[in-house]
Specification:
The chain is of the alpha+beta class. The protein has a single domain, classed as Alpha-Beta Plaits, CATH 3.30.70.141. It has helices spanning 13-17, 21-30, 45-51, 61-68, 83-91, 104-108, 123-134; strands spanning 4-11, 34-41, 73-81, 117-119. Strands 2-3-1-4 form a four-stranded antiparallel beta sheet, sandwiched between helices. Helix 3 crosses helix 4. The longest helix has 12 residues, at 123-134. It is globular and about 40 Å long. The structure holds uridine-5'-diphosphate (UDP) and magnesium ion (MG). Uridine-5'-diphosphate binds at residues 55, 60, 64, 94, 112-113, 115, 118, 121.
């Protein structure tokens, strides 16, 4: 059975700053992800706060929003069979130290906050996050 899904991916400021966006995009494409839409943007802190609203009570919330709005990011809609889970797997664990070999965060992540990529964690959140950045 086919289960083509779409998920939202963000290449975060630490990776864009190091010019890793093309290499990271290649990692997605090598795993069979199709990049449906993409744009390089810089967001306001208030937009980061809205995007990461689920984390508003966490101690790291303020730093996280300052960081995500600190420089250019690349936002992409990725499509593949079971894309949400497949992307989480390719990204690796939140803390790059715990991420498996071959994952984006293991390869490029600097620390738990500068971990190079974001990916939606459920089909429902993927829809919300895709709309957040790409709603016409
Ligand atoms: N984060 C952080 N400190 C923490 C936990 C998370 O700075 O202790 C940041 C990190 O950049 C992470 C983001 O907050 O990617 C969102 O956290 P989440 O638990 O949703 O991790 P993810 O879904 O990105 O793996
Ligand atoms: Mg998350």
């Amino acid at each position: 059975m086919s289960n083509l899904e779409r998920t939202l991916s963000i290449i975060k400021p630490d990776a864009v700053e190091r010019n890793l966006d093309d290499q990271i995009k290649k990692m997605f494409e090598n795993q069979g992800f199709k990049i449906i839409k993409e744009k390089k943007i810089q967001i306001e802190k208030s937009e980061a706060e809205s995007f990461y609203k689920v984390h508003e009570t966490k101690p790291f919330f303020n730093d996280l929003c300052t960081y995500l709005s600190s420089g250019p990011i690349v936002v992409m809609i990725l499509q593949k069979e079971n894309a949400v889970l497949a992307n989480r797997k390719l990204m690796g664990a939140t803390n790059p130290k715990n991420a498996e070999q071959g994952t984006i965060r293991r390869k490029y992540g600097i620390s738990i906050d500068k971990n190079s990529v974001h990916g939606s964690d459920s089909i429902e959140n993927a829809k919300t996050e895709i709309d957040f950045f790409f709603k016409e």
